[in-house]
Design brief:
Structural class: alpha+beta
Protein name: 4-hydroxybenzoate 3-monooxygenase
CATH class of one domain: Alpha Beta
GO molecular function: FAD binding; oxidoreductase activity, acting on paired donors, with incorporation or reduction of molecular oxygen, NAD(P)H as one donor, and incorporation of one atom of oxygen
Bound molecules: flavin-adenine dinucleotide, 3,4-dihydroxybenzoic acid
Largest sheet: 8 strands, mixed
Radius of gyration: 21 Å
Distance between the termini: 34 Å
Keywords: FAD, Flavoprotein
Number of helices: 12
Mean pLDDT: 97
InterPro entries: FAD-bd, FAD/NAD-bd_sf, RIFMO-like
Helix content: 25-40%
Amino acid sequence: MRTTVGIIGAGPAGLLLARLLHNAGIDSVVLESRDRAYVEQRQRAGILEQGTVDVLRAAGAGARMDREGLPHDGIELRFDRRRHRVDFPALTGGRAVMVYAQTEVCKDLIALQLKEGGPLLFEAEALAVEDAGTDSPRVRYRHEGRESVLECDYVVGCDGFWGVARKAVPEHLSRVFERTYPFGWLGVLADVPPSHDELVYARHDRGFALLSMRSPSVSRLYLQVPEGTDAADWGDEEIWDELERRFETGDDWRLERGPITQKSVTPMRSYVHEPMRHGRLFLAGDAAHIVPPTGAKGLNLAVGDVVTFARALVHLGETGSAERLDAYSETCLRRVWQAERFSYDMTTMLHRAPGATPFDDRIQLARLDRIATSRAAGTDLAEGYTGFPLD
Ligand code: FAD
Ligand code: DHB
């Protein structure tokens, strides 16, 4: 098979890229190792930045998001039994976010791709990217028990952290920047209306907790747990008891309980691979970088990368200039490092590290108090949360 852009991975990055290229009249083929049901059910992110919402709408993929998504104008920070609301539009000149799950973004993009776009092959596992440094890179893959080759003008590795694309960048040209955190998130889905109409990020001496949602009747909740925790070690009532403790306030706010339908543990890591391009291979999304989930940047960064790539390729077609394509890595990395910094700041401000001292606790509380009392500090959080603009 031959195509202009070979896309590895049908997560949000690969699916959106295929849609953007289709809209620009550029053909692509998407290879996805898992089956459709798996990709559509995998529980992950839930918050879309303003820029992501705008991109999905402009790509003709925003209709259901606009009907069913929940626009949010702020978040609540909870610490020391206090509650502080961060008002996004007031602090950013009108920016906000949308609660619309990654599962739903993927379902919408898959339906569009199958109806209008180029080939999207499920259960097609990329085995290797070859000849990335030449004008005709190839993806070797296995589909329906047979090995085949996809010949491309460009390959975009959207195959997540565990994919194969990154391995095609020679080691001596790669630099990796990494940090792991000695804790993870136990995430649960529960059939109960959210106990607050906006997200609540809580810092507590027992650890971090987050109240989020998937719809007006489904809550999504997270608890900081020690690294290596098995979700099965936590009973449902134990989870609710712990959430209740960490969300405690000085007023009469209450956490509603309901049946827990899913639970899993996510490890926390910061990771950046530089450069994000080698020859005609481009890395996008989790294939190139990981952020800890606090602040919900992962999916939004993936969107920024593929928009940057699609615009650069269109620019090449329209002007003959490869300048933007050549600047892909640098352009993306500026935004990536801002998101890395933001996610790191949110994570270290809100989680209690093992061995944290009373001094560390006081510093965290001082950082939160600063956000609650200084417009400049509140604006910094609101700008980061609603998203860094694309160049
Ligand atoms: P992915 O969504 O990982 O998609 C990559 C795709 O490539 C997958 O479908 C995979 O099956 C496919 N693939 C892999 N290898 C191959 C291969 N060899 N051949 C073909 N296909 C391949 N972010 C948040 O903001 N909030 C959260 O709460 C949150 N929770 C998360 C929980 C988990 C367990 C994980 C792993 C991530 C979470 N994230 C969260 C991050 C966010 O979901 C990711 O940043 C986002 O999915 C990135 O999209 P992507 O398309 O780059 O990669
Ligand atoms: C969700 C995940 C996040 O990482 C976050 O900061 C906010 C919300 C969520 O899954 O709903």
